[in-house]
């Protein structure tokens, strides 16, 4: 460039101004973010995001809950028909040889050792029997009469027995059970000295079925507990129960119908005062 200024001072000032302009441009560059810096910042952000969302796999031992699964197999429900047991045949295992006997006169064969029990079948004089048991007092014999399917109780005085009835063991036979009716309810016993009054609620039955009530009692008599069977057509009974026995007295009650006996109920026995 050719300068035509003749004033040296102006020329010098012009040159200084140009120099300052060029120097200012070199000393003050424009600060524009470079792609490398932007790339670094982006890389840091991506790395930080990856750390936050990284899935950490931790081994876990799982114990399964074992719940058994049952396979239901349909079964047929049996139909139960309630019928009274007409007779009961107890199993006799005599410890001694049975005694031979002969029926002396027409007799009643019963389900228990006493006239209080239901009639089982009739016997006639001349019938032969084997005595396989007895009651405690020995006044009733448990006899297997020849020609009959099972034993019955016969009054000992109506038999001609070959030998001593006490040589056979005492025996208590089960009674024929009937579930046609419920046992007596409201059973109560009250003592007045030696006298005990037993009462209960009547059991309704048809007139044809009705056979009254049976009480089996173990009563204190003269210092010993004695078994006593009591029949009643009414719902109240008086018995004698004394003091002085080592064992306590007790009793139970049934309702009787022609096929057998209901389940028994214990009689709450009053203590002797």
Oligomer: single chain
Which of globular, elongated, flat, extended, rod-shaped describes the shape?
Answer: elongated
Helix content: 10-25%
Query: Which residues form runs of ≥5 with pLDDT under 50?
Result: 1-6, 22-95
The topology string of helices and strands comes to HHEEEEEEEEEEEEEEE
H/I helix tally: 2
Structural class: alpha+beta
For the record, give the distance between the C-alpha atoms at the N and C termini, rounded to a whole number.
155 Å
Q: pLDDT average, as an integer?
A: 78
For the largest beta-sheet, the strand count, sense and barrel status come to: 5 strands, antiparallel
Number of strands: 15
Our estimate of the beta-strand percent is 25-35%
Computed over alpha carbons, the radius of gyration is 56 Å
What is the strand arrangement across the widest sheet?
Answer: 6-5-4-1-7
């Amino acid at each position: 460039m050719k300068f035509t200024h003749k004033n040296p001072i102006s020329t010098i000032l012009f040159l200084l101004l140009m120099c300052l302009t060029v120097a200012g441009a070199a000393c003050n560059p424009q600060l524009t973010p470079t792609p490398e810096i932007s790339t670094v910042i982006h890389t840091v952000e991506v790395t930080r995001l990856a750390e936050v969302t990284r899935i950490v796999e931790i081994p876990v031992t799982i114990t399964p809950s074992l719940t058994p699964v049952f396979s239901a197999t349909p079964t047929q429900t049996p139909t139960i028909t309630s019928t009274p047991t007409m007779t009961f045949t107890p199993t006799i295992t005599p410890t001694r040889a049975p005694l031979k006997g002969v029926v002396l006169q027409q007799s009643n064969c019963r389900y228990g050792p006493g006239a209080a029990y239901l009639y089982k079948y009739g016997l006639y004089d001349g019938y032969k029997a084997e005595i396989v048991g007895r009651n405690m007092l020995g006044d009733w014999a448990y006899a297997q009469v020849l020609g009959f399917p099972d034993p019955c109780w016969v009054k000992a005085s109506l038999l001609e027995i070959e030998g001593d009835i006490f040589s056979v063991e005492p025996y208590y036979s089960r009674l024929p059970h009937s579930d046609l009716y419920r046992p007596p309810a409201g059973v109560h016993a009250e003592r007045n000295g030696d006298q005990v009054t037993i009462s209960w609620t009547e059991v309704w039955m048809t007139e044809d079925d009705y056979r009254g009530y049976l009480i089996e009692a173990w009563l204190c008599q003269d210092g010993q507990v004695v078994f006593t069977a009591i029949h009643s057509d009414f719902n109240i009974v008086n018995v004698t129960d004394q003091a002085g026995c080592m064992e306590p007295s007790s009793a139970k009650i049934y309702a009787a119908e022609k096929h057998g006996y209901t389940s028994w109920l214990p009689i709450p026995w009053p203590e002797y005062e």
